[in-house]
Structures are given as C-alpha cells and as structure tokens.
Automatic annotation (TrEMBL):
Its EC number is 2.4.1.21. It catalyses: [(1->4)-alpha-D-glucosyl](n) + ADP-alpha-D-glucose = [(1->4)-alpha-D-glucosyl](n+1) + ADP + H(+). It holds the Pfam family Glyco_transf_5. This is Glycogen synthase. Gene3D superfamilies: Glycogen Phosphorylase B. Belongs to the glycosyltransferase 1 family. Bacterial/plant glycogen synthase subfamily. The lineage of its organism: Bacteria, Pseudomonadati, Pseudomonadota, Alphaproteobacteria, Hyphomicrobiales. NCBIfam families: glgA (TIGR02095), PRK00654.1-2 (NF001899), PRK00654.1-5 (NF001901). It comes from Enterovirga aerilata. Synthesizes alpha-1,4-glucan chains using ADP-glucose. The keyword Transferase applies. ADP-alpha-D-glucose binds at residue 46. Residues 322-463 form the Glycosyl transferase family domain.
Length: 505
C-alpha cells in the first residue's frame, strides 16, 4: 500500500471533524499563501540555526508570497508580547488538546500565529526540554499539536479568514503536519526542510492513539522506524517535496554514512526529483563596518580594526597579550561538531604560539574538558560555557581562524559569519562547509574526521598567518563572499512553485 494514501475506513472521524472544512483559498488569486511552521524563531526563542532561518527566510520570501509563521506559544513568546489577540480556536482531537490561535503583527509586516496552550508550552527551559537539558516527556503531544494546528489551518478556519496554499514544515517538531494533511484527505501541498537528519523525533508506538496516527500508517512504508514512531520520517513520506540546507548535505543523506537509517527512503525521493538542497543565508547585520557590538569597525580594504577586536577578545577571556594567531570555537559542544578533535588539537596550537577562545554549551564531558584546558593554559586558552550572541560576534571579528571540525554539518552558519568578519574557517569538507568554504582561498578544509587531518589544516593556516600578504588576501576574499537570503529564497520559490503545480509537473 502506498503510504501516502490512507483508505477512507482508516481515517479517524474525530480527527477529520477536528480539521473542519472552510475558508479555502479562492481560485485564481495571484499571490500564493505560505504557512511557515517552525519550533523556533530568533525573534522570540532560539536553540540553534533553525531559529535564525525561521526569522529570516519568511521575511525574504514575503517579497513574492503571502507568508505567515506558525509557532508554539512558549513562555518566551507570550512574555515578550503584552497582549496577543486571539483570532481563532482550534478544536481537540484524540490526545491533542484544544488551543487558541493568537496573532502577532511584527513591525516589518510579518504575521506570526501563536498556538496558545499554556499546559503544553508555558514552561521554563528551551523549546524541547527543561533547564537541565532533559527532553520534555510529552514532546510528542507538544509537537503533534503543532503539526495538527498546521493541518487545521490548511483545512480552513473560518474565523481566521486566511487559508494557506502550501505548508512549509521544518524538522521533526512540525513534520507530522504533512501526515495529518494526508490522513484527512486534504490536497494542500507541503514542503519539509531537514535542518538536521540526526534528530528524528522518535516515540514509543504506545503514543500512536493519542496522536491520532492510523494503524495502517505504522509500517515500514509509513511512519515506523525500527519499531518506533518517527515524526521526521512521517514528514518525509507525506511531504510533496523535501529540502535540506545545503546541496552537499542533500547528496550525503542519500548514503548510509550520513542517512541515519533513512538513506533508502531519501534515495527514492531523490530519484523522483523530490529532494533538493538549498543553502541557508545570513542576515545583513553581520557586517564589520557597521556592527555596534565590535570594538572597532573594519572592512576588506582597511583591516587594521581586526587587531583592536582581537585585543578586546583577549582581554575579555583573560588571555595574555600575543602576536600569535587567535583561534575561535563558537559551537555546540557535542560529538557531531568534532569538539573532541578541537580539544586534542589545542595543545599543538598552543605550542605553535597560538591561543584559543571557546564559547558554547553541550555535553558535560566536553564542557569539563574545555574548562580543564583553560586551567592548564590560562594565558592561552579561554572558555565561556554558554552562549551570548554579542560575545560570539566579537570572537568572529577578533579571531584569525575559526575551528569547525564537524563530523557532519547540514549547513552551518558560523563559517559564514566568520568569513564575513575576516576569520578564516578551518573545517571538515562536509555538508554546507564544503559548499561555503574555498580551500586555500577563504579557509582551510580537510577530509577525514581525524586529528592528523585537522592538524594538517591547522599547520597550513599557521603558515598563512606567517605571511601578512597571503593572510590579508584570504581575509579579503572571505569577506567578499555573499551569503544573503535572496539566493536562498529564489531556491525555495522554485520548490514551492513545483509543489503548488502538483505531482505531474
């Protein structure tokens, strides 16, 4: 049985009734309506790169489409907005509670719909877990509610007066939206963007009834993944089109090495022309000429200001005055990011006269290891556990090199930020890093996720540092790279148009 088609008798009447029928878009309307569904948005709450993308991409797409954002009403959202007017009520279905839909009109004209359900979202912590980092036990309900809300809006909510032509879903938290649309027999197309395939949203099959998942959908051709329910697989199976956040990552995830057990399904999509890589962008605030958080402005034609920023970073991290190279780490401290390789390479960097500054949070073992390095080399290694964007900006502007030895990197934003600020990335040749760094021109790439390969790239960087002419030429080349959202938006426009045209196109 084709997993994208669920027989009438398998549909749950309560669920279909909850979706309703009303407010469908009128035919022939010139401007298509896009509902951008996300679990993060940097305007309010951000746990990773998805938050930045969700703040920038809908705004860039708004030049062509009527784009509106749907996000859960976390405490970070409701506490920032004094009064969020309620514009609709969405009914309950199975174990997914009823909720209200609020509306925020941003100063720049972007409309954000907020799912107001305090029992699910009004909590301290991140979008996904408590303050200790533990996942919320009811994340299936919390994000099943997000996907259901998207499907209910797609079905038409009369009080809303707006019905999307297409759903744009992001990662596992919203991925179930495409499945709900299919199970209800709706024709609304959907695009799912995979920002990181490693996070799939896996839950015990005992949770299926509460989510309204039809029994017939729980199989190898449907939402089942090694005996568990996979939100992300559901999104991949039922979406009209799947995108990833770089061209290289789109190719990589069709292989066993990077496919996280879904490579076969993704190869199938690729063969059908329904898998596309579109590189993320960065916003225009990453400009060393105008960034107010920097100690001194600078530009490609006048790089003197980099030294003032480097001196400020050294003071901030308590490092000794030095003429040697300054290496930065701005990263989640997790295995994916190759943090163990960074830790192992630090002693060699220090021996060559370099210094390392680190900011980030992650696995406790890596946090402890970084702090021990700072204790061992207090004048050469500085560590700040946690993340503050202003500090990160100063680190990008002040450092000579950015260490980014990721084992895999769907897109990566730090290497783009670094290049705009004249810091040359030293990175593994994978995913978006391969797509955004020109080896020996705007940074240094290495292939194998090994200490030897990383040290070889570091030695090349140190050699370049020894030649002011070569170093500044690379800095200028890096700063001249453009990673604006216009190009990314154009890629999504193509995908949207294909999805809206239907499967025959």
């Amino acid at each position: 049985m084709d997993a994208r088609v669920i027989a009438d008798e398998d549909r749950v009447p309560e669920f279909v009734a909850a979706l309703g029928r009303g407010g469908a878009p009128s035919e022939g309307r010139a401007v298509q309506r896009i509902l951008y569904v996300t679990s993060e948005m940097a305007d309010y709450v951000k746990a990773g790169g998805l938050g930045d993308v969700s703040a920038a991409l809908p705004r860039s797409l708004g030049q062509r489409y009527d784009v509106r954002v749907l996000i859960p009403g976390y405490r970070q959202v409701t506490s920032r907005e004094e009064d969020i007017p309620v514009v609709a009520r969405l009914p309950a279905a199975h174990g997914l509670p009823a909720c209200e839909l609020g509306r925020i009109d941003c100063p720049d004209g972007l409309t954000v719909y907020v799912i107001l359900c305090p029992d699910l979202y009004d909590r301290e912590g991140s979008p996904y877990g408590d303050e200790s980092g533990a996942d919320w036990a009811d994340n299936d309900i919390r994000f099943g509610r997000l996907g259901l809300a998207a499907a209910q809006i797609a079905a038409g909510v009369p009080d809303l007066g707006w019905t999307p032509s297409l759903l744009h879903l992001n990662d596992w938290p919203s991925a179930l939206g495409s499945a709900y649309v299919a199970w209800a027999g709706l024709q609304t197309p959907s695009v799912l963007t995979i920002h990181n395939l490693a996070y799939q949203g896996l839950f015990d099959p005992s949770r299926l009834p509460g989510l309204g998942v039809p029994d017939s959908a729980f199989g190898v051709e449907g939402v089942e993944f090694y005996g568990k329910l996979s939100f992300l697989k559901a999104g991949i199976v039922y979406a009209s089109h799947v995108t990833t956040v770089s061209q290289t990552y789109a190719r990589e995830i069709t292989t066993p090495e990077f496919g996280c057990g879904l490579d076969g399904l993704l190869r199938k999509l690729d063969g059908e022309g329904r898998l596309t890589g579109i590189l993320n962008g960065i916003d225009e605030s990453w400009d060393p000429r105008t960034d107010r958080h920097l100690e001194s402005p600078f530009d490609p034609n006048d790089l003197k200001g980099k030294k003032a920023n480097a001196d400020e970073v050294r003071r901030e991290f308590g490092l000794a005055v030095s003429r040697g190279p300054l290496f930065a780490v701005v990263s989640r401290l997790v295995h994916q990011k190759g943090v163990d390789l960074t830790i192992e390479s630090t002693e060699s960097i220090v021996r060559q006269g370099g210094q390392v500054v680190v900011t980030g949070r992650g696995e406790e073992r890596f946090e402890r290891a970084m702090q021990k390095l700072a204790e061992r080399y207090p004048a050469q290694v500085g560590v700040r556990i946690g993340f503050e964007e202003q500090r990160a900006r100063r680190m990008f502007a002040g450092s000579d090199f950015l260490l980014m030895p990721s084992r895999f990197e769907p897109c990566g934003l730090s290497q783009m930020y670094a290049q705009r600020m004249g810091s040359l990335p030293i990175a593994r040749q994978t995913g978006g890093l391969a797509d955004t760094i020109k080896d020996g021109v705007t940074g240094f790439l290495f292939r194998d996720p090994s200490l030897g390969a990383m040290l070889s790239a570091i030695y090349r960087a140190v050699d370049a540092f020894g030649s002011r002419r070569k170093l500044n030429a690379m800095r200028r080349a890096a700063m001249s790279e453009t990673y604006g959202w216009t190009r990314s938006a154009a890629g999504y426009c193509g995908v949207y148009d294909r999805a809206l045209a239907g499967p025959s196109q």
